[in-house]
Structures are given as C-alpha cells and as structure tokens.
Amino acid sequence: NDDQFKKVISHAKEYGYVFQSSEIYDGLSAVYDYAQNGAELKKNIRDYWWKAMVQMHDNIVGIDASIFMHPTTWKASGHVDAFNDPLIDNKDSKKRYRADVLIEDYCAKIEAKIDKEVAKAQKRFGDSFNKEEFISTNPRVVGYYERIQEILSRMGKSLEAEDLADVKALIEELEIACPLSGSREWTEVKQFNLMFGTKIGASAEHALDLYLRPETAQGIFVNFLNVQKTGRMKIPFGIAQTGKAFRNEIVARQFIFRMREFEQMEMQYFIKPGTQMKWFEYWKEARMKWHMSLGMGAENYRFHDHDKLAHYADAATDIEFKFPFGFKELEGIHSRTDFDLKQHEEFSGKKLQYFDHEDNASYTPYVLETSIGLDRMFLAVFSNSLVEEELENNTTRTVLKLPAVLAPVKAAILPLVKKDGLPEVARQIFDDLKWDFNVTYDEKDAVGRRYRRQDANGTPFCITVDHDTLDDQMVTIRHRDTMEQSRVNISDLTAIIKKEVDV
Ligand code: ATP
C-alpha cells in the first residue's frame, strides 16, 4: 500500500541506501544514486546472481560488453523501428500519458466501480450472486472489456499506424464512461522511441549517431560466435552479463522500479532448435528456485505467462513479485527463437552458426533468455525486508530483515562502554573480521540504541565487548531477527558469521 511504499522510500534515504540523483539541484526524474549501504546491497545481489548463474554452471560464462554499440545493432534488433511507447497528450491539462498505462488506469477504475456494484448486488441477492456472471451479462461492461483486451494485446505486439486512431477513440470513450483526467481534448497518439541518442566523434560532419543500449542482450548476441569459439563452448551453453541499460521512460512514478538508467542481469542460453520448450520450463523452474533460496516468502511470487508475445518470442513468462504497489514484473523469461542471431546475420552479412558434431550439421541456435532488473530486485528485497515490529514492552522497532547473504554490513562490533580498554579489544575484533566480511565499528550512544540502529540498517549480527571479555575472551552475539543473545568465544566468531552469510 501507499504508506508502506512511502516508508520504504524514506527509509532507503535515511539509512544511506538510495538517494535521488543530483538532489542539490532538485533531482532528475527517474534517476537515482545508490548510497554507501545501497551500493553494497546492490553488489551483493549482483554477486549472488552471478554465482548462481556463472560460477555454478560449467557451461555458462560471463562477459562485459560495452554500452555503446555499432548503430546497426539496433536496426537489426528491431529497436529503431519497434521500441516505442504510444503517447497521448491532453490538450486541456497539457499532461502527457503513456496510452497503454492510461488505459490500464481506466481499467483499474472500472474494476473498482464494478466491485462496488458487485458488493451492492451481493447485499441484495446474497451468496448466490456471482461477479463473473454479473460482468458477463452486463453488455456495456463486456463491450469495454473486449475492446480493452484487444487493444492492449495489439500494443504488446507494437501498434500499426491505423491502430493509433483506435486507441485515441477508446481513450475518449473511457474518459466519458469513467472520468480520470477530467478533460476530454486529446491529441493524436504518437509513437515515441525509448532509446537515448548520442554522438561519437569530435567534428560535426564525421560524428556518428549512437544509442545508449536499451538492453544488455544485444552485446551477448553480437559476441556469440567469439565466445563460442574461444571458449570452445558446446551447445547448450549460456553467456551471462550484468550492466547498465537506458530507456527514456515516460511514466516514471515508482521509485527505482522504473528508471531511465538501470542495470540488468541477463543470461542468453544457446540451444538446439526444437528444444526451446524443454529449456523454457527448465529455466522457469531454475529461476524461481533462485528467488526462493532467499527466503522472502513463496506467496510473494507468481508466474505470469504471456499470451501476447513480442515479435521475437515464441513463449514468454514473467516472474512477478508482490511490491508495495502490487504484483509486478521482476524478471522475464523469454524463448527468443533464432530471431536475434538471424537478424544479425542478415544485417552484418556474417554467419553466426554453430557446427554440431553429433548431427554433423550447422545451424543458427535458438535462444532462451532470463532477464532480471537489478534495481527491481533491490526494491523487492528492500521493501520485503522492512518491517515494524511490536515488542513485548509496548514499544516498536524498525528492522530491515535483509537475507544475511545480501546485507551490506554483516556485523557491528560494539564496545559496551568507551573506556577500560573495551574499545581496543573491539577494534582488534573488527580488524580480524574485516578480512572476511564487511563489518562496522560503533561506540556512540547506549548499546540499546546502537542495536536499534543496526536493526534498521539490516545488520544481521551485533557483537558486544564487555568487561568480562577481558577475562574470558568471550563476547555477546545478538541476532537481528530474533534479538537472541548468546555468549561465544572470540575465536569462533568467523565460523558463526560465515555459517549465516555464506551460500
Ligand atoms: P516493463 O514492462 O516493466 O517496462 P519490460 O517488459 O520492458 O518491463 P524487459 O525489456 O523484459 O522489461 O527487461 C527485463 C527486465 O529489466 C525487467 O523484468 C525489469 O526487471 C528490468 N527493467 C526493464 N525496464 C526497467 C526500468 N525502466 N527500470 C528498472 N528496471 C527495468
């Protein structure tokens, strides 16, 4: 809900996770900076993904391709012609909308209206009343639903010029049926390309127009044969990559969920044509398992299979996560056929084929892709972890229950008091642990306040040095989630922490 989402955003700022970009100049819309803790969390998520995808698979290797690519890449990939959002302006309010998002907003409003009617009717008719029946027997509602579905599905496949007038007409009708914007004067719907353009080269006449990559995948496709040959890879094999991508998003209203500069973690799995459904199922399961391994609650994930497919895909599903604003796409799994490699063959004039020794034949491989937004994963982890707990003594505590493996700081070392030689012992523990973990030292304020600060920061362990430590070489270790404390030998600390934070 809205409140929870606001808390997430303010907590992310207060505890040094995410800042608005260029804040002193009032920020830049849909662009964010990761702060001291955020950068660590983001790196840990990236490493967790990389380890699962690259290190754990002897047939998957990682690359790091450039953000700039030859401009023909984007002709071949279809992004120059078809990477568009349909936009519409309201002449009265001078506001600009993404047509599909606007239609979805109308749908949500109509749904809410229907729910109200249903509730009323249910009161009147009791349990025998049925929502589906009500909708399907109400001709006006049915009419809207059918047209909306049809138009949204055409949008998913990228709209033709003649569709755009239809979209405008639908928006005009919906505005009358269910006012949202309050004004009725609309411009035509225009296609707006989402790629950022830039130039390379110093002199105007020799400058080359380039795009900032809108996805990392193409860097993998154009390197497919280089990697296959130099790595002597045998099909099936994968190439993984993490890196920045850029999209000139119009509707940017959900914090780091939809950014103009973001990071993707993608893996393209090259397979034999005809085996794509097997691998589609395989990667659906493997990726869901990866998510489950973080222990953030199975009920917060679901698959959303696509019935409308992009031009390059023959099967696609999203892994959706329950964000504070509802279930939304977190990761996409796409069976991309040989579309990309074939396009690059055509535009480059080079063969991108694989010689299969078993079949004694060459073919252009099919591709199964897994693609997850690092920033979206960050938001999923962060928003899911932030909880307010009622404690027994009628107080509350704010705790960021990050999976220990992802937490920016694994342990805080706290001398009980700032004297009697305790800081020196605590410093020594800090200096020993820092070789293995990102740890912090804190001696300011009462120890209870320091515990709360570390709870809110997501630190899984607090290690307290007290006067007894000087005699028995033991410290108190406190667990963030249970608040349980136990006394352990200093020499056992590394093993205890490792057990929780290593995968
Ligand atoms: P959406 O429908 O939300 O715009 P998409 O279907 O265009 O996403 P893909 O092109 O499949 O997304 O990109 C793969 C992943 O990259 C998405 O699942 C998402 O996690 C991430 N992603 C895409 N666009 C953005 C963005 N603007 N900001 C942050 N992450 C993004």
From TrEMBL:
GO MF terms, alphabetically ordered: ATP binding; bis(5'-nucleosyl)-tetraphosphatase (asymmetrical) activity; glycine-tRNA ligase activity
SUPFAM superfamilies: Class II aaRS ABD-related (SSF52954), Class II aaRS and biotin synthetases (SSF55681)
EC number(s) per entry: 6.1.1.14
Swiss-Prot/TrEMBL keywords: Aminoacyl-tRNA synthetase, ATP-binding, Cytoplasm, Ligase, Nucleotide-binding, Protein biosynthesis
Assembly information from the UniProt record: Homodimer.
PANTHER family reported in the protein's UniProt record: DNA POLYMERASE SUBUNIT GAMMA-2, MITOCHONDRIAL, GLYCYL-TRNA SYNTHETASE/DNA POLYMERASE SUBUNIT GAMMA-2
Protein name: Glycine--tRNA ligase
Organism: Bizionia argentinensis JUB59
Name of encoding gene: glyQS
